[in-house]
């Protein structure tokens, strides 16, 4: 029940020596301030790193062929093989929890450079033969025109989507791109769209110097037949590509007569596994932030406990009189604990407000900045962090006042009345 007299007494007790109270409260303010700032900085770092993925489907893996490292079924060690387009349907049938299985062929890059010609301009770029799903696995902004669709796949249209880097190097300023032709290894392709890659990597020049064409047209134009260079595979939401990886490998090994225990024959990169490691790092950083913040806060709590012991000592006569007038132990204990919690919450909330203002200021300064190449973006704390901080403050206040409260109720009325 609210009692104005009790609160007047609490405020009077804490303000009787305001300088001492302020210094003591600063310890709690600083502890909560450090905790919130560390959590916000960790979130900003996490946002910056995840921004670098640019919306890439992180529950994905990339798979390519290597040489067999074991003989199997009469076939020699060191044998090379190729994925086939029929492997895609087999993987989808055997592993139903997959969202996308995208076959891909490539010119340039690791396979050597290729010449792209338009008029008098020439360049060496990565050229990918892809299916339309690749844009959901490797997101990009279509800056003009459109991306490859299934009509292009079915009709084997020789069309291309070029990066902004290719457009800048192969076309004059202001020149119309859509509907023009570029020659890739001597084969003409009509440009139907331009793109810009997302994320930190999206602003790297090489990421904008790529060309996408329909997989079927690529295979026909460059005599790839049914061969597939590599695959991008994404699992459904709620499934882990890391857990499905073994089943996918088994399908490939079975179809290409590879020893079941030959783990070197199929190369792969598990993006989900790497992304999980990054998430684990940020969980650890959050734990470190809480650990450091709580330790700093603990020093402030010790300070409040000390000042409450002094306050109880100074009020020994008052406590004795109240005990003599019939105040029970819980009444005395509650008064001391209330003072402790009140001081802790007020100073802690001041720390939260100060940290929030600084975070807001940082975000305001970063509004006009291009953070796409930065490893830090949008530092913030959510409501859960604030509620956790408040819970820590309440518990800390109770702990800080516990010992002084116990000392207060040990005061005997007769002994207290003898004090000056």
Automatic annotation (TrEMBL):
> Which InterPro entries has this protein been placed in?
ABC3_permease_C (IPR003838), MacB_PCD (IPR025857), Macrolide_Exporter_MacB (IPR050250)
Show where the ABC3 transporter permease C-terminal domain sits: 291-411
Q: How does it sit in the membrane?
A: Multi-pass membrane protein
Q: Name one GO cellular component term.
A: plasma membrane
What does the record give under GO molecular function? transmembrane transporter activity
Question: Has keyword Ligase?
Answer: no
Protein family per UniProt: Belongs to the ABC-4 integral membrane protein family.
- Protein name, as recorded: Putative ABC transport system permease protein
- Organism, by scientific name, is Salinimicrobium catena
Q: What is the lineage of its organism?
A: Bacteria, Pseudomonadati, Bacteroidota, Flavobacteriia, Flavobacteriales
């Amino acid at each position: 029940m609210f009692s104005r007299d009790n609160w007047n007494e609490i405020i009077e007790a804490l303000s009787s020596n305001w300088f001492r109270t302020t210094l003591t409260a600063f310890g709690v303010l600083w502890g909560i301030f450090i905790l919130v700032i560390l959590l916000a900085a960790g979130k900003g770092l996490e946002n910056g790193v995840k921004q670098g993925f640019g919306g890439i489907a992180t529950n994905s893996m990339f798979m390519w062929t290597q040489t067999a490292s074991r003989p199997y079924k009469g076939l020699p060690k060191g044998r090379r093989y190729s994925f086939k387009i029929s492997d895609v349907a087999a993987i989808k049938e055997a592993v139903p929890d997959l969202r996308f299985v995208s076959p891909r062929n490539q010119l340039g890059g690791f396979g050597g450079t290729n010449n792209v010609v338009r008029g008098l301009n020439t360049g060496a770029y990565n050229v990918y033969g892809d299916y339309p799903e690749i844009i959901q696995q490797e997101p990009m902004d279509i800056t003009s025109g459109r991306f490859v669709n299934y009509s292009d796949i079915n009709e084997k249209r020789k069309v291309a989507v070029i990066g902004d880097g290719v457009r800048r190097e192969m076309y004059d300023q202001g020149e119309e791109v859509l509907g023009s032709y570029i020659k890739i290894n001597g084969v003409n392709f009509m440009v139907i769209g331009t793109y810009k890659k997302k994320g930190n990597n999206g602003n790297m020049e090489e990421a904008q110097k790529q060309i996408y064409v329909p997989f079927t047209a690529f295979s026909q134009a460059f005599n790839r037949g049914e061969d597939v260079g590599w695959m991008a595979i994404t699992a459904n939401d709620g499934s882990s590509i890391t857990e499905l990886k073994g089943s996918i490998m088994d399908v490939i090994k079975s179809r290409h007569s590879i020893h079941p225990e030959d783990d070197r024959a199929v190369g792969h990169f598990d993006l989900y596994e790497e992304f999980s490691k990054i998430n684990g790092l940020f969980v650890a950083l959050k734990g470190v932030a809480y650990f450091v913040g709580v330790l700093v806060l603990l020093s402030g709590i010790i300070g409040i406990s000390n000042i409450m012991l002094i306050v109880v000592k100074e009020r020994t006569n008052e406590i004795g009189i109240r005990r003599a007038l019939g105040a029970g132990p819980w009444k005395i204990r509650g008064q001391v604990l209330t003072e402790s919690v009140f001081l802790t919450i007020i100073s802690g909330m001041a720390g939260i407000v100060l940290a929030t203002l600084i975070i807001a200021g940082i975000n305001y300064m970063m509004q006009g900045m291009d953070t796409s190449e930065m490893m830090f973006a949008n530092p913030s704390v959510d409501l859960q962090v604030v509620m956790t901080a408040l819970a820590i403050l309440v518990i800390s206040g109770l702990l800080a006042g516990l010992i002084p409260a116990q000392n207060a109720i040990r005061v005997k009325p007769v002994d207290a009345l003898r004090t000056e």
